Amino acid sequence: QKEVEQNSGPLSVPEGAIASLNCTYSDRGSQSFFWYRQYSGKSPELIMSIYSNGDKEDGRFTAQLNKASQYVSLLIRDSQPSDSATYLCAVRGGTGRRALTFGSGTRLQVQP
Amino acid sequence: EAGVAQSPRYKIIEKRQSVAFWCNPISGHATLYWYQQILGQGPKLLIQFQNNGVVDDSQLPKDRFSAERLKGVDSTLKIQPAKLEDSAVYLCASSLEAGGPYEQYFGPGTRLTVT
């Protein structure tokens, strides 16, 4: 079982729709969770962090965390073609290794 | 505030040659990371420094990779000798760490091609 799992996609949504990206993780002790956006040929860019169960909103982005289910999601409202990118879920371990473990990413395509 | 700086941006070498990458973290960030990202995959940690000490190098292929962070600021990652499978993007990231926050910020990366 991979430590951090994401559907590779592509996830295709029409412009203006809500895009929903999901991530599951295996380390039950994990405490910190991050979403990065990566455009082709560019480095990952941090867009959201979440530490507590529930929702965290920042502009058009909402991160959702459910530690009991070991599940993190990212919602993008009013999706724009400029949101087309790969979204990486990253988890910081609860004990021992403190560096981030990344999923392989979900490719999002927003159709104009 | 300046971001994480890396150089070079691109490097092409032949197998068995050596190569070095440089990283300067965000000012004041105590923790520095080197990641390897192979096409189609998420970044994978190679080594983590807290100030100038190594915190985690469990995934660093120590027979060919080495890294240092002298004076607790900038860092160098070296590969010697390179193999074809080392072709990847090498990303440097930094964070404040200690008690947090734990957000990591990435540099632009170095794209390495080994022929």
Question: Could you walk me through the main structural features you see in this protein, from its secondary elements to its overall organization?
Answer:
The complex is a heterodimer of chains A (112) and B (115). Chain A is mainly β and 112 residues long. Chain A contains no helices and 11 strands. In chain A, the strands form 2 sheets. In chain A, strands 2, 4, 5, 9, 10 and 11 form a 6-stranded mixed sheet that branches. In chain A, 36% of the residues are buried. The mean pLDDT of chain A is 94. Chain B has 115 residues and is mainly beta. Chain B contains no helices and 11 strands. In chain B, the strands form 2 sheets. In chain B, strands 2, 4, 5, 6, 9, 10 and 11 form a 7-stranded mixed sheet that branches. A 4-stranded antiparallel sheet of chain B has the order 1-3-8-7, with no helix packed on it. Chain B is globular, with a radius of gyration of 13 Å. The mean pLDDT of chain B is 94. Chains A and B meet through strand 4, strand 5, strand 9 and strand 10 of A and strand 5 and strand 10 of B.
Helix/strand order of chain B: EEEEEEEEEEE
- What would you call the shape of chain A? globular
Radius of gyration of chain B from CA coordinates: 13 Å
Oligomer: heterodimer
Quote the average pLDDT of chain A. 94
Task: Give the N-to-C terminal Cα separation of chain B.
Answer: 37 Å
Weakly predicted, low-confidence segments of chain B: none
Can you give the helix content of chain A as a percent range? Answer: under 10%
Distance between the termini of chain A: 36 Å
* Rounded Rg of chain A: 13 Å
Query: What percent of the residues of chain B sit in helical stretches (DSSP H or I)?
Result: under 10%
Query: What is the 3D form of chain B?
Result: globular
Largest sheet of chain A: 6 strands, mixed
Helix/strand structural class of chain A = mainly beta
The overall strand count of chain B is 11
Q: Give the SSE order of chain A as H and E letters.
A: EEEEEEEEEEE
Please state the average pLDDT score of chain B: 94
